[in-house]
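Read as amino acids, tokens; as here:

___
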Amino acid sequence: MIALSDNTATNILIKQLGVNAFNAGFKTFGLEHTVLERFLFDEVAVNQGKENKFMPRE
């Protein structure tokens, strides 16, 4: 339940704020290699080659 709820909440935030806002925020925090390109579990976007990139060292 938590995994589904957290992912749903994340997708709602992405929809409300937009991908660009997240990416700008990542840059503000100094996360140069972390990039959001799509909603979580979006198979259509995955098939288009869009992938979210999160770097553990950041």
